[in-house]
Design goal:
Layout: E1 8-13, H1 15-19, H2 23-31, E2 36-43, H3 47-54, H4 60-74, H5 84-99, E3 104-110, H6 114-122, H7 135-139, H8 144-149, E4 158-160, H9 164-174, H10 187-192
Antiparallel strand pairs: 1-3, 1-4, 2-3
Helix pairs in contact: 3-5, 4-5
This protein binds guanosine-5'-diphosphate (GDP) and magnesium ion (MG).
Length: 201
């Protein structure tokens, strides 16, 4: 097994993150953990890029639909449909509109348990119920109910890979291998080296 410190994850600052002037705040939160930024680009994605991105994982549709329905039921509210695939189909249409509405910043972060750590800092899908202290919980307020009422995607500032296999599919979708930069930072010795080597001699 590869050392966990080599794990990589894909993060996208979505169009609302850019429009809300939260780029610096978002970067700061990932950067200060010790994770390393190894790839970065700004672009306006095409609808095809967005659709392909979300359909890379064949189970994504079922999962996204089930998660949405469960969230409605938990609050005693009525979901727009009880069929997860039907919910997901409408989410895909909304996502294409949302993600192509303006520039996004795609990036790759590398380091110990990068996927899990970035999801923890980012927070749950729905800002309404995302934890306090997470980016989605602290900087925006959208809900399944508001988004579905207006037939649009939930505005939650960020995309972050949901699992290591998802990251492994998503990174090559957005970056060529040569766009991912290999380098070392001094603090990696403190984070990872067996002998930190910081004692005065
Ligand atoms: P994530 O991994 O937390 O981003 O969530 P998912 O992969 O499940 O969904 C992808 C994106 O679709 C989310 O970040 C939201 O922007 C949007 N989304 C997900 N579920 C719903 C939903 O039930 N309704 C609406 N309107 N948007 C949704
Ligand atoms: Mg996801």
């Amino acid at each position: 097994m590869a050392h966990p410190k080599t794990e990589r994850t894909l993060v996208i600052v979505k169009p609302d993150g850019i429009q809300r002037a939260l780029i610096g705040e978002i970067f700061k939160r990932y950067e200060r953990t010790g994770l390393k930024l190894v790839a970065l680009k700004m672009l306006i994605p095409t609808e095809a890029m967005v659709e392909e991105h979300y359909l890379l994982d064949p189970n994504w549709k079922k999962n996204v639909g089930e998660k949405a329905i469960a969230s409605y039921l938990k609050k005693g509210e009525t979901p727009p449909s009880t069929d997860p695939i039907e919910v997901a189909d409408s989410v895909v249409v909304s996502l294409k509109k949302y993600m192509t509405s303006g520039p996004v910043i795609a990036m790759v972060w590398e380091g110990g348990h990068a996927v899990e750590l970035v999801r923890k800092i980012t927070g749950g899908t729905e800002p309404r119920s995302a934890g306090v202290g997470t980016i989605r919980g602290d900087f925006v307020l959208d809900s399944y109910q508001m988004a579905d009422t207006d037939t649009r995607a939930i505005r939650n500032l960020i995309h972050a890979s949901g699992s290591v296999p998802e990251a492994e599919m998503e990174i090559p979708h957005w970056f060529k291998p040569e766009e991912i930069v290999k380098y070392r930072m001094p603090h990696e010795a403190t984070l990872y080296d067996v002998d930190m080597g910081s004692r005065a001699v």
